[in-house]
Write a structure and sequence with these properties.
Distance between the termini: 52 Å
Strand content: 15-25%
Radius of gyration: 17 Å
């Protein structure tokens, strides 16, 4: 059988999910290579006027943009992943079609993890670094549908 000469690009997939639907219930979390827990950061769920919004909504984005801890964590994760991805991409031993899954978890998978996954996806898919521009990116908010259906 002849092997295909089609080479797929390396992919980075960002996901968000809620801890309470998996680990807290004794179920396996969604597959990931990297996991960043955000449960130590302030939670908009406890702010009555923000509780019903999610990490894609302007109200939550504005709330997090002025929080130095959130912005510092976001930058640190970007820096760490950028260095790792460049190193991994340049490794001649890796398969051409490698996929790295980066997961972000918060308690419910609605605010913090969604915000981080979306922001990192946006940062990487728009970066000017030449190696990062050669990659495919994917984004999945695993548990966000649980909340959108209730709207």
């Amino acid at each position: 059988m002849k092997r295909s000469n089609i080479i797929t690009k390396m992919k980075i997939k960002f996901i968000s999910y809620g801890h309470k639907f998996y680990e807290e219930e004794g179920k396996p979390a969604p597959y990931h290579d990297f996991l960043f827990s955000l449960r130590d950061l302030k939670n908009p769920y406890w702010v009555p006027e923000l509780k019903d919004f999610n990490g894609l909504d302007k109200e939550i984005i504005d709330y997090f943009k002025v929080d130095e801890n959130i912005q510092d964590r976001l930058q640190r994760i970007f820096d760490l992943l950028e260095k790792f991805i460049i190193d991994f991409k340049n490794n001649s031993n890796r398969p051409a079609d490698s996929c790295i899954v980066v997961a972000f978890k918060c308690t419910g998978g609605k605010h913090r993890s969604v915000y981080f996954a979306q922001n990192l996806y946006d940062l990487f898919s728009n970066t000017e670094h030449e190696i990062c521009k050669q990659l495919d990116y994917e984004l999945e908010h695993v548990d966000l549908h649980r909340y959108l259906a209730a709207r």
